[in-house]
From TrEMBL:
Pfam families: M20_dimer, Peptidase_M20. NCBIfam families: aa-his-dipept. One of its GO terms (biological process) is proteolysis. Its EC number is 3.4.13.18. GO terms for cellular component: cytosol. It comes from Polaribacter atrinae. Keywords: Cobalt, Hydrolase, Metal-binding, Metalloprotease, Protease, Zinc. Residues 208-275 form the Peptidase M20 dimerisation domain. GO terms for molecular function: metal ion binding; metallodipeptidase activity. Belongs to the peptidase M20C family. This is Cytosol non-specific dipeptidase. Its cofactor is Co(2+); Zn(2+). It catalyses: Hydrolysis of dipeptides, preferentially hydrophobic dipeptides including prolyl amino acids.
Length: 486
């Protein structure tokens, strides 16, 4: 499958991407990809080292004639989101990504592609391995764990990098130049519950929600896509309120930064309510599917009779669980009052797990406003604490405040207009880029972000545009030729 991808233009980029995608690289398990990058740098006889947290830094001297330009840091993250369709058989810890070409798009066979941020990594590798691309002094910064906490960026110490300009290659629209981004915080609610025996007069059902688009919980949150955890909660709440439904287990969502596409639950109802429950739930399913028919045409909600479970959740805790998820905000919370069309604050109810006496609910709250980020986080905390949950606020990272006086922003935006005859979309984004964190230890570093067009990041529908990658590559090469003098 990768062979056809290797023949795409620019071959130097796609070949490095194919090499990278052969290496498993989940967040917090980057040992193999770290070694892969170290081997890459050393094979080129370039200064290569790993910092104390696992970031890889490679340095390359300027080509002749550009020695007097400012040093540039090219930055991308090594880890990727590992998501697959429920019916896809794939071991992320052992297998390389199986890539496919569909028209102008490179995609994967039932899994995430890793273009986020693998194409950025591959482009940097292409620059460093080339002998005929003009560039100033370069430092490649390959960070780890961007997708699950940005601990690589947080752990990068000041003084390691010498660059005055940073080009972050992690934006997913090729006509966009990033100048700012949202910060984030994890809101995790947990509690235990007593398990009860299942009544002899009960019947059990499996309920599954699947077929949703999912996607990036920052960039795609504005699309108001379906959230499998919210939809499942709606079904369970209705069954509980009207028919005394009791929950045995729930498995909804997976990663904190992915809008949940699927949820599955095992529940029981009294056998005398069976027919009425199925009728009522069927009507609700039709209503929900109708509400989402335009934006979620592939949504399926199935309910099937199944084997009775051994245990169910006590009713008091169950009521609090369902009401707290109902009360917890999901989606856009506030639009930016300053930048038209930009989400300022949002929350993603990413994961709901109920099993063996333990409940865990994971949310990722984002905002470009530190005060509103904490306001929404406290709102969620309150909703869960009222139902007896312990709530932990963790993993907080800052946003990247826009610098309208950025010199490199002027260079990059003017060059885009010269190359393409139209202005780029210079904007802040609602995703969490590492620039804000890196700027804490490198406050004088001038930063912008750009990249090729990627759709469906963080989902098995992820795909990267071939023509856009060609556009991005030419743009990057031209930028490196036009870096300002020291």
């Amino acid at each position: 499958m990768s062979k056809a991808v290797r023949n795409l233009e620019p071959k130097i980029v796609w070949n490095h991407f194919a090499d990278l995608n052969a290496v498993p690289r989940p967040s917090k398990k980057e040992e193999r990809v770290i070694q892969f990058m170290v081997d890459f740098g050393k094979k080129l006889n370039l200064e290569t080292f790993v910092d104390k947290v696992g970031n890889v830094i490679i340095k390359k001297p300027a080509t002749k004639g550009l020695e007097d330009r400012k040093t540039v840091v090219l930055q991308s993250h090594l880890d990727m989101v590992h998501q697959k369709n429920s019916d896809t058989v794939f071991d992320f810890d052992k297998e390389g990504i199986k890539m496919l070409i569909e028209g102008d798009w490179v995609t994967a066979d039932g899994t995430t592609l890793g273009a986020d941020n693998g194409l950025g990594v591959a482009a940097i590798m292409a620059i460093f391995s080339s002998n005929d691309i003009e560039h100033p002094n370069l430092e490649a910064l390959f960070t780890i764990d961007e997708e699950t906490g940005m601990t690589g960026a947080m752990g990068l110490e000041g003084g390691i990098l010498e660059g005055e300009i940073l080009l972050n290659l992690d934006t997913e629209e090729d006509d966009e130049i990033g100048m700012g981004c949202a910060g984030g915080i994890d809101v995790t609610a947990t509690r235990s519950y007593a398990q009860e025996d299942v009544s002899e007069n009960a019947t059990a059902f499996s309920i599954t929600v699947k077929g949703l688009n999912g996607g990036h919980s920052g960039m795609d949150i504005i699309k108001e896509l379906g959230n499998a955890n919210k939809i499942m909660n709606r079904l369970l709440f209705d069954g509980f309120t009207n028919f005394g439904l009791q929950i045995s287990e729930i498995n909804g969502g997976s990663l904190r930064n992915a809008i949940p596409r699927e949820s599955a639950a095992i529940v029981t109802v009294d056998i005398i309510s069976k027919e009425a429950f199925l009728l009522e739930t069927g009507l609700l399913i039709n209503n929900i599917k109708g509400e989402f028919s335009t934006i979620e045409p592939n949504l399926t909600i199935d309910i099937q009779e199944t084997t009775l479970p051994n245990k169910i959740m006590e009713l008091g805790v169950q009521e609090g669980l369902l009401k707290s998820i109902y009360a917890a905000h999901n989606g856009v919370y506030r639009m930016s009052p300053d930048i038209k069309g930009l989400v300022e604050t949002s929350n993603n109810i990413a994961k709901v797990i109920v099993k063996n006496g333990t409940i865990k609910i994971g949310c990722l709250t984002r905002s470009s406003s530190e005060s509103n980020k904490l306001d929404l986080a406290n709102s969620l905390k309150s909703a869960f604490e009222l139902s007896g949950f312990d709530v932990d606020l963790s993993g907080e990272y800052p946003g990247w405040q826009p610098n309208v006086n950025s010199a490199i922003l002027d260079v990059v935006s003017n060059l885009y207009e010269t190359l393409h005859g139209e202005k780029a979309d210079v904007a802040a984004c609602h995703a969490g880029l590492e620039c804000g964190i890196l700027g804490q230890n490198y406050p004088e570093m001038d930063m912008v972000s750009f990249g090729p067009t990627i759709r469906g990041a963080h989902s098995p529908d992820e795909k990267a545009s071939i023509s856009s990658t060609q556009k991005f590559w030419k743009f990057l090469i031209e930028i490196l030729k036009n870096i300002p003098k020291k």
